[in-house]
Amino acid sequence: MRITVDPGRCVGAGQCVLTAPDLFDQDDDGLVTVLAGAADAADPGDVRDAAALCPSGAISVAAD
Amino acid sequence: MSTEADARTAAPQCPVAFPLRRPGRPFPPPEYATYRGGAGLVRSELPSGPVWLVTRHEDVRAVLTDPRISADPSKPGFPKAGRTGGAPSQYEVPGWFVAMDPPEHGRFRKTLIPEFTVRKVRELRPVIQQIVDERIDAMLAAGTSADLVESFALPVPSLVISSLLGVPKVDRDFFEDRTRVLVRLSSTDEERDKATQALLRYLGRLIQIKQRRPGDDLISRLIAAGTLSRQELSGVAMLLLIAGHETTANNIGLGVVQLLTNPRWIGDDRIVEELLRYYSVADLVAFRVAVEDVEIGGQLIRAGEGIVPLIAAANHDATAFAAPSEFDPERSARSHVAFGYGVHQCLGQNLVREEMDIAYRTLFARIPSLTLAVPVEELPLKYDGVLFGLHELPVTWK
Ligand code: SF4
């Protein structure tokens, strides 16, 4: 599973952090980041939920 | 013939009344289900002209994320709900970023995002807790009955946002009165203008003071960041004050009623999300206009046509939420659009969640004998506002 985030689209609503706190974080500017090394261990269901809930389409998931 | 063309002809030609909610009837209006099951989009008439009401969850999300659909009220055809149909003047305030499209919107939003991250909002818990406790102390000290809207649901969010912004507590009444004018559908343009001007004048002075004597508050931090002009700062501060308190107040009040009539959910972690979905207090908040021809749910919307995505209709769509008229915190309600969707999705949503959570936990823990003082059917609901809620919530305790 490949998770890409686009901080340029992020509107900082924090849905991703609420959905998958082990995977996503907000940096000092409040924009989405993926926590280092977390992608491999992430629950695919949580990742899909986070991508679907993100209001700005800043999170994309691709199967690898 | 394509299904799209079928859907188009199925849209009723005769416009339906707006808003659809009426005193003495259930909320959300029963018509929402009819329209969702029919064409999904229906024509309605506002003082400013015809609009499309959008009712399906999928379609509402599509409206709120489509770049061909604008949130900018200066665009031709933008719907106006005021009785006289004039432009709500607060939309023209510099810094009123809910009424802007990207990329302009992004400049304001980005400045504010760091103030409302999940982490930052969690740090505010002790502040919220203290405010909630003080309000309950005051209620208990005053007797064994109260109007919970007046003494709890309204002051809590109002004090929280004032404290976050750095607005003195003593000025709360001033803000509440002016805000009430701005969220009432029946306010005249003159009333709106006056309230807006009064708020901006006050905030302009407050910003001046904070420029000289900064404090540990959001306005002072925005001044220090230096990215916004003084006028823009006043507008942003006013927007946050208004957005931050009536909405949350209505959520808190309605939620208390739900929990009083359904006490088995008191203390459950999952109530907040379901309450947000269930009541959808911001049903009529997200007005839009098409700036290009766009197709939504099989319906062609022409450039210049107004659009009102109905938040409560989307949140009660059975294709998104099973048995939507049941209050069921066990469901996964997170895909609700109570905070909107797209780039304008509520910036303060996590603050709202914390406030609701702390308010219910503390209220029912500290006043376990809390009961409604009137039958549920007699509670005065707000049918005349942009926001759905309660005018009053009479309660008693032992
Ligand atoms: S949910 Fe989307 S918009 Fe919100 S913080 Fe995460 S990436 Fe950004």
From TrEMBL, chain A:
Role noted for this protein: Ferredoxins are iron-sulfur proteins that transfer electrons in a wide variety of metabolic reactions.
PANTHER family cross-referenced by the UniProt entry: FERREDOXIN (PTHR36923:SF3)
Entry-linked InterPro entries: 3Fe4S_ferredoxin, 4Fe4S_Fe-S-bd, Fe-S_cluster_ET
Superkingdom in the source lineage: Bacteria
Domain 4Fe-4S ferredoxin-type: 1-29
Keyword field: 3Fe-4S, Electron transport, Iron, Iron-sulfur, Metal-binding, Transport
GO molecular function, one term: 3 iron, 4 sulfur cluster binding
Species annotation: Streptomyces noursei (Streptomyces albulus)
Pfam families the record matches: Fer4_15
Name of the protein described by the UniProt record: Ferredoxin
Automatic annotation (TrEMBL), chain B:
Region (Disordered): 68-87
Keywords: Heme, Iron, Metal-binding, Monooxygenase, Oxidoreductase
A family per Pfam: p450
PROSITE patterns reported in the protein's UniProt record: CYTOCHROME_P450
Superkingdom to which the source organism belongs: Bacteria
Residue stretches in coiled coil: none
Keyword Transferase appears in the UniProt entry: no
GO molecular function: heme binding; iron ion binding; monooxygenase activity; oxidoreductase activity, acting on paired donors, with incorporation or reduction of molecular oxygen
Similarity remark: Belongs to the cytochrome P450 family.
Protein's name according to its UniProt entry: NysN
Species for this entry: Streptomyces noursei
